[in-house]
Amino acid sequence: MADTEELAKGYTFVNNTQYDAGLFLLQRLNLAPGSRVLDIGCGPGDLTAHIADVVGESGSVVGVDPSKERIALALERTRPNLSFYEGIAEDLSRFPSDNFDVVFVNSTLHWVQDQSMAMKEFGRVLKSGGRLGISGGSGDFVAAHEKIKADVLSRELYRIYPEESPPKFLKQHELESLLDHAGFSEREIVINNIVKSAKDADEMIDWLDTSSSGKTYGGIPLHLRPRARGEMKTEWDKITTDKGIRMEMELLVTLAVK
Ligand SMILES: C[S@@+](CC[C@H](N)C(=O)[O-])C[C@H]1O[C@@H](n2cnc3c(N)ncnc32)[C@H](O)[C@@H]1O
User: Fold this and answer.
1) pLDDT tens digits for 189-201?
2) Pfam families attached here (predicted)?
């Protein structure tokens, strides 16, 4: 199922976990005023707009995202040094080579289908000495939301509808290999341990839906989704305490130099 306006708008209200992860990545990138930045998978542009403020009027930020609904929201943020385009990480041909000081990729790489191609594109559009910052879920750690999704989608009623383009969370050694192949030999990867909190199962599922553009349900057809949601809710309820849900997550945070 494609993204919807409702999911895109919903994400702007609940993306504080991704926003904080993005701030952690930005801290490591230590952006200088005047930098030219490309934000890959910018969504509705909350972090992109923040980066525009950090780099100031002498710098600029371009956000790219495949969701026309998210780009439409992003375009409502008008700043002279901020622009947005529909597009994918794997094809940045609208940009010349050696063009950006920084490529910023937050909470997005797992949705990119051809991660190897994308990594090569990041290398192409960066200036020599330019920096690549990536933060996203680690494939070395399976978070509760992945377990619950896999469990429910494997049930008899749903497993005949395989997910067409499932998320791919990279293990550190896979990430290292992609960076090697794209020529990023100078790099540092650290782990950012975070906790995603939600007051209850519905809040957690809404966060997953809006963050994944509806892909929480894999290939399950629309008419079965309310039932699948009910079954996921039952699983979340099992790990809900009187303080709500606390889900541990492990993010891999990469800083690489071209
Ligand atoms: C969880 S959101 C992250 C948005 C934003 N970076 C943030 O940190 O709030 C993931 C975004 O990746 C985008 N996305 C999915 N596939 C992509 C691709 N192939 N190339 C670039 N972005 C993609 C989605 O449309 C979505 O906006």
Assistant:
1) 999 999 999 999 9
2) Methyltransf_31
Tokens of 253: 């945070």
Q: Which residues contact 199 (CB under 8 A, 6 or more apart)?
A: 244, 245
Give the 3-state DSSP-derived string for 209-222, with helices as H, strands as E and coil as C: HHHCCCHHHCCCCH
pTM of the model: 0.96
Cα 65 to ligand 1 centre (Å): 6
How many Å lie between the centroid of ligand 1 and the Cα of residue 17? 14
Which of 108, 208, 216 has the most ligand 1 atoms within 8 A of CB, as the residue to mutate?
108
Domain 5-142+166-196+249-257 has CATH 3.40.50.150: yes
Backbone angles phi, psi at 20, to 5 degrees: -65, -40
Strand 82-86 relative to strand 60-65: parallel, antiparallel, unpaired? parallel
Structure tokens at 41: 């998978």
Q: How many Å apart are CA 39 and CA 126, to the nearest integer? A: 12
Q: Is the CB of 92 under 6 A from ligand 1?
A: no
The minimum-distance atom of ligand 1 relative to the CA of 88 is 20
Give yes or no for residue 7 CB within 6 A of ligand 1: no
% residues pLDDT > 70 (the chain) = 100
Residue nearest to atom 25 of ligand 1 (CA): 67
- How far is 143 from 106, CA to CA, in rounded Å? 18
User: What burial letters (b/e) apply to 234-255, b meaning 16+ CB within 10 Å?
Assistant: ebbeeebeeeebebebbbbbbb
